[in-house]
Specification:
Length: about 230
């Protein structure tokens, strides 16, 4: 069921609060946006903790980042260029979420892709998760860095920065961030125990082929490994 304009505002705020409660963001970190039926967008404002976000504080913008509706003094997230690039590259994307979940961000800071095919649920839903090249926040470097990966991936790590997920709606993007962070935790624990046991190529292909049966939407890279990015 399609959400009303106000319901969508409330859902974005609910996700923001969950991000803060889970420790994925601190201070003014992170941002969430959603695409409306008319091709405009709702986005979190810059300079505000996600724990303090309320529906009326969200900013309504067009595709050129012109403000259509906002409280006095409120401006779009400084990372809105990254969000708009996701919508531009993918017509199926209806929401974008950026956060700094600690373990996944640890992999981004270490420049290590989460591309082990060891966890059944992650193989099925996301596949490998690359680290995109470094880009200076709030500039077009970040959108340009992530663009080549959006065609195959619904979740990426941003080098030295954090994580980004996309989805057809806000909850789907949020769930993908949950899956990403849990997989990062499991991967780190597996390595502390001596290393992950990866699935066979046959079982990986079988899981990927079952996505439709499970109602899994979005993009999947198939079996794909990533070298560490070089400076």
């Amino acid at each position: 069921m399609e959400l009303s304009y106000m319901e969508l505002r409330e859902q974005i705020c609910d996700v923001c609060h969950k991000m803060w409660q889970l420790g994925w963001v601190a201070a003014n970190d992170g941002n969430v946006s959603a695409k409306l039926a008319d091709g405009t967008f709702l986005t979190t404002p810059t300079g505000i903790s996600k724990s303090f976000i309320t529906p009326e504080k969200l900013v309504h913008i067009d595709k050129d980042c012109n403000i259509l509706e906002a409280l006095d003094g409120y401006r779009p997230s400084s990372e809105v260029k990254m969000h708009l690039r996701c919508y531009e590259e993918r017509e199926d994307v209806g929401a974008v979420l950026h956060a700094h979940p600690p373990v996944a961000t640890g992999f981004a800071v270490a420049n290590i892709a989460l591309d082990e095919y060891s966890m059944i649920e992650t193989v099925l839903t996301l596949g490998s998760i690359p680290v995109t090249p470094y880009g200076t926040p709030s500039t077009y470097e970040v959108p340009n860095a992530i663009a080549p990966y959006l065609g195959e991936h619904d979740a990426v790590l941003l080098q030295n920065h954090g994580a980004l997920t996309v989805g057809a709606d806000v909850l789907t993007a949020y769930y993908r961030m949950e899956t990403l962070e849990l997989f990062a935790k499991i991967t780190m624990n597996a390595h502390l125990l001596g290393g992950a046991q990866e699935l066979s190529k046959e079982n990986i292909d079988r899981l990927i082929s079952m996505r439709q049966n499970y109602g899994v939407t979005g993009r999947h890279p198939g079996y794909k490994k990533y070298p560490r990015n070089e400076e």
